Amino acid sequence: MSDEPLGTGSAVVGITLFGFIFVLIALDLTQDYSEGTNALHIVMESIVLLSAATGIALLAQRFYRARRSVRILQRDLESIRRDAEKWQADSRILLEGLGVAIQRQFSRWGLSTAESAIALLLLKGLSLKEIAAIRATSERTVREQARNVYRKAGLSGRPELAAFFLEDLLLPIQDD
């Protein structure tokens, strides 16, 4: 995929086409004028010449606006990426600690390696179908492993599994 803004390629083609038409009409108009062609013909070609110039101007304006918009979006995206990298760096230690704590809890529950992997993917919000695809197994197998996770953990399902780990991480809402 190109870094070119959507529609700018067609704008460049349009500008080139209108420019070519403009030049041809200007040459013809110059020749017609020097040959003394009737005034109505000169006026008509002058109108077409002005139309081509207007087309060039409008397409050029669209082109430059699109390029400016893309530069602004690229700058914003870069800022968002920097913010995300900073957040990841700031929270990396905490997230690593959370990952270790989650694995410890899985061990306390007596989850097998496969069940631990299923539980982690469930916590990440993947569907049973997505988990089956990632693990190259059947959806039925994943469903059974998920049931085993819930049974061993003493939980009723995915919402309780997520709540088990997230409830204490979220700060209570403070009244102003």
Outline:
Helix content is 81%, strand content 0%. The protein is an all-alpha fold.
3D structure, described in words:
The chain has six helices and no strands. It is an all-alpha fold. The chain has two domains: 7-91; 110-170, Arc Repressor Mutant, subunit A (Orthogonal Bundle), CATH 1.10.10.10. α1 (8-35) runs antiparallel to α2, α3 (113-123) packs across α5 and α4 (128-135) crosses α5. The longest helix has 71 residues, at 39-109.
Describe the structure using short key phrases:
single chain; 176 residues; Arc Repressor Mutant, subunit A; 0% strand; elongated
Write the layout of secondary structure elements.
Blueprint: H1 8-35, H2 39-109, H3 113-123, H4 128-135, H5 139-153, H6 158-166
Helix pairs in contact: 1-2, 3-5, 4-5
Low-confidence stretches: none
Kindly report how far apart the N and C termini lie.
49 Å
Cα-based radius of gyration, to the nearest Å = 33 Å
Specify the oligomeric state: single chain
Choose one word for the global shape.
elongated
Task: Report on the biggest sheet.
Answer: none
Give the integer mean of the pLDDT values. 88
What order do the helices and strands follow? Answer: HHHHHH
Number of helical regions: 6
Number of strands: 0
